[in-house]
Amino acid sequence: MDLATAWAIKLTGLKDQEKFKALGWGLRTWDQWYFNDCDDRFGTDWPGRIPAQLVAHTLFYFTDPGDLVMDPMAGGGVVPDVCLLFERKCQAFDLAPIPDRPEIEPFYWTADTTTWPCTREPDLIFFDPPYFTKKKKAYQEKADPETPPISSLSRHQYMQFFARFFELAHENTRPGAILAFLNADWRDFESTPAKKESPDHAITLFDFHRLLSETGWKITHRIECPLSSERLSGTLVQKMQDKRILGTVSRTLLIAKHI
Ligand SMILES: C[S@@+](CC[C@H](N)C(=O)[O-])C[C@H]1O[C@@H](n2cnc3c(N)ncnc32)[C@H](O)[C@@H]1O
């Protein structure tokens, strides 16, 4: 039996707060959720894997036990694992499902998608897509050449994809449903001094805010979930400072309600 299932069985019937305590996760009371590391007990190692604690906090504040959670781009399966743990139902999809994780169903989203793979209306959609071209190569390696990940799209196509996805999600949920959308500002900072960055190359949370508002979603919360900066070597940091490059460790969870 895998660890995630063993923990889920062990904690069955406990209240959410008791589960946080048993897992050794301090419950965050404020709208800043920083977790230094992923908890290896949950989810398979995967590019862009997120901490299980981040998912657990989303479920704690925005769902009830028994609710249905949908994960359209489930990657290493942290969301289904945490749903099992916190007794929420889950339907998860990805273009590259992991063979020993039958709970993640194959599904390929495009800007032309008209079908909705969930068999019931979800109460919450936890959406953690690739942050534009970040980790593009790693996602391409997991995918088939015929089904390239959205990180291979141009900036324009990438934004068109989200406009369609948010619209489709709105059509397939009822009023009151929640979309939890995790993303980070994308800027061409890697070799460009901050003062010379062009807004035409950037995709920021404000762009997603606009798309969500245009497709019937009302943003209710903005939760900061910063990435760790410790993975950058001292030499790299020094180079960035010499060139006046302003890095980004911000990552934001937007909570939007179907209105
Ligand atoms: C940021 S990762 C998700 C990580 C996941 N939350 C975890 O913690 O392991 C984004 C996922 O989106 C998937 N993906 C990218 N483009 C897709 C598409 N067009 N259709 C379906 N899945 C896609 C990738 O295969 C990748 O697993």
Short description:
The protein has 259 residues and is an alpha/beta fold. It has one domain: Vaccinia Virus protein VP39 (Rossmann fold, 3-Layer(aba) Sandwich). The protein has helices spanning 3-11, 16-23, 52-62, 78-85, 136-142, 155-171, 205-214, 234-243, and strands at 68-71, 89-94, 104-106, 124-127, 178-183, 217-224, 252-258.
Describe this structure as you would to a colleague:
The structure is a single chain. With 259 residues, the protein is α/β, with parallel strands linked by helices. It has one domain: 3-Layer(aba) Sandwich (Rossmann fold), CATH 3.40.50.150. 31% of the residues lie in helices and 15% in strands. The chain is built from eight helices and seven strands. The chain has helices spanning 3-11, 16-23, 52-62, 78-85, 136-142, 155-171, 205-214, 234-243; strands spanning 68-71, 89-94, 104-106, 124-127, 178-183, 217-224, 252-258. The protein has a seven-stranded mixed beta sheet with strand order 3-2-1-4-5-7-6, with helices on both faces. The protein is globular. The mean pLDDT is 96. The structure holds S-adenosylmethionine. S-adenosylmethionine (SAM) binds at residues 43, 46, 48-50, 73-76, 78, 94-96, 107-109, 128-130, 139, 142-143, 149-150.
